Amino acid sequence: MGWAPFALQQYDYYYRRNTKPGHPNEDFKISRLPSEIFEDHIYLTFMDDFVGGQTLQYCGDKNCMWSSDYPHPNMTWPNSRAFLARQIGNLDPEKQKRVLAQNCIDLYGLDVKA
Fold first, then answer.
1. N or C: which end of the chain has fewer CB within 10 A?
2. CA distances, 54 to each of 85, 89, 90, 95, 101 (Å)
3. Of 63, 62, 67, 108, whose CA–CA distance to 87 is shortest?
4. Domain that holds residue 19
5. Is residue 114 situated within a structural domain?
6. C-alpha distances in Å from residue 108, one per residue of 37, 39, 84, 111
7. What is the pLDDT of residues 35-62, one digit of tens each?
8. Of 98, 92, 94, 100, nearest to 47 (Cα)?
9. At CA 108, angle to CA 104 and CA 110, rounded to 5?
């Protein structure tokens, strides 16, 4: 997920640059910034992505979810808690909750009792 903030920044830049009045692409078929469309439709997951975890401080936590990918070979188990502590331990508890559970609950409309 660490790649996303830079890519979205670039897509927005090119969209703004290439859809100005008089530009050959001014009638481009989308009317919103790519980052806005991304925010409405795309979720990112991560397992071992220190850079991605750090970007949550700046880019928000709405579209990101942690994944253990158990039982695949690239999983973080049995050290998942240590990975999480390094990657998102600096975030406030509410952001951690969103990334670790609430975003998944919201995305899939899960009925989870408190």
1. C
2. 12, 10, 8, 12, 18
3. 67
4. 4-108
5. no
6. 19, 16, 23, 9
7. 999 999 999 998 888 888 888 877 788 8
8. 100
9. 85
